[in-house]
Structure formats: C-alpha cells, structure tokens
Amino acid sequence: MIPIISEPRQILLAGMSFYGDPFDIHAGWDEENRIGELWNRWMRFLYHNPFCQNLAAEMPGFYEVHLYDEDTAEKGLFEVFVGIAIMESVLHKIPENLCLKNLPESKYAIFTLQGMDIKSDWENTIQLSLLESGLQRNDSYNFQYYDERFKGIQHIESSILDVYIPIKNLQ
C-alpha cells in the first residue's frame, strides 16, 4: 500500500464526538458500535438541520477523526469525531450543540481503501507501509474522508474512502 503525500492547509471541522471505547457494545465495522451510533446521531442532526450542510467548505464530504491520548493504549479509550469541513467565516452560524475541531496544517500520507480493505485491519498495514516508506506518524490523530465514492456500510464492496495520517520523515 503506497501512500500519496499531501500538505493541505488547516482544516476546520464542525460536528459531534464520542469519547470512550467505541467497541464496548459491539466490535466491527457496522452501525451497532459507538461509532455507528455517532454517525446515526450526526446524520439525524443534519436531516433536521439541513442549513448546516450549506456551511460546508470546498471539500463537501464527511470526516471521521480519531484522537488518541494516554488512555488509548492502556484502556482502549479515544475520541471519535464526525463532521464536515467549514470555513472560518461561518463560525458564527454553527449551532451551540456542535463541536469544533481544528486540524493543523500538516504533511499527510493518504491511503485509499477500497471494498473489503475498509473492514480489514488497515491500521497495521498502514503502519508497516509508513515504515517501509521511511515515514512515521507525527501526531496523535488520523482521519477518514468520506465522499461520493463511499456507498455506505451496506455497499462496502463498492465503496472507497481515504485515510489521512499526519507524518514526518524518520530521522
């Protein structure tokens, strides 16, 4: 798996989050775990607040950000955030029940996952690919970008998504 290297500018996101063990009630890539519940809550919010979709920046897809801290390795706890990219000029229009995330300008390795690779243990595959490319993670988060190529969990075989990993060169 060979990544594409990109250096997008800062990404400002508006959405919803969950902190804990996202697989405590159900493991796997489906709507039965905490991540699936979060996506369902987010999509219900957008359905009832369609004006929020008009706040999206030039990348009209959805983001799923995984933020890791000291509890991740020890207890399996981390934050999952789902949302849309927005421009700073619309911050005053963001409802108070949404969270904001600011992903700093960074160098990213972008991995494109297709079909059943999406449900695989791609984290380990990506880590090996980074090492083979002379790269390493540069931060405690990564994100998945879902656009029109992602057809949904029910159509995973024909779906595509991109995984962005902040990176730096090995010293």
From TrEMBL:
<dbReference type="InterPro" id="IPR010499">
    <property type="entry name" value="AraC_E-bd"/>
</dbReference>
<feature type="domain" description="AraC effector-binding">
    <location>
        <begin position="1"/>
        <end position="168"/>
    </location>
</feature>
<dbReference type="InterPro" id="IPR029441">
    <property type="entry name" value="Cass2"/>
</dbReference>
<dbReference type="GO" id="GO:0003677">
    <property type="term" value="F:DNA binding"/>
</dbReference>
<dbReference type="Pfam" id="PF14526">
    <property type="entry name" value="Cass2"/>
</dbReference>
<keyword id="KW-0238">DNA-binding</keyword>
<dbReference type="InterPro" id="IPR011256">
    <property type="entry name" value="Reg_factor_effector_dom_sf"/>
</dbReference>
<protein>
    <submittedName>
        <fullName>Predicted transcriptional regulator YdeE, contains AraC-type DNA-binding domain</fullName>
    </submittedName>
</protein>
